Amino acid sequence: MSKQKTLTDLIKFVIGGGINTAFTFALYYGLQIVLPYQVAYALAFATGIVFSYWFNATIVFRTPVSWKGFFAFPLVYLAQYLLSAVLLSVFVERLEIPQGVAPLVVIVVTIPVTFVLTRWFLRRT
Asked: What PANTHER family does the database record attribute to this sequence (predicted)?
């Protein structure tokens, strides 16, 4: 795979992540008006996973969409969460990065890792 293709895919991945984040936050805020906030969050989060799978499979990496891939895709989110939780702890407790800033640093660090995991996963399912 060429460096140009990888860079193009990474840009599309980041744009899709931005769209997904904005959409899920908007959905959460809308749903929590009529539902308990935990239910609203769960529905918005699940919708975000569905959108992420569809967007990354069809737009970013152009891989076939399948039920097997769809039901296994949340493993990428699990891996991302576990890595993010460890990094957040290290940044706050060891490197003394303020709690309000550390999540932003975590996002910057984990985007490339999540990109690689997503690409690997979607090409295997």
From this structure: PROPHAGE BACTOPRENOL-LINKED GLUCOSE TRANSLOCASE HOMOLOG
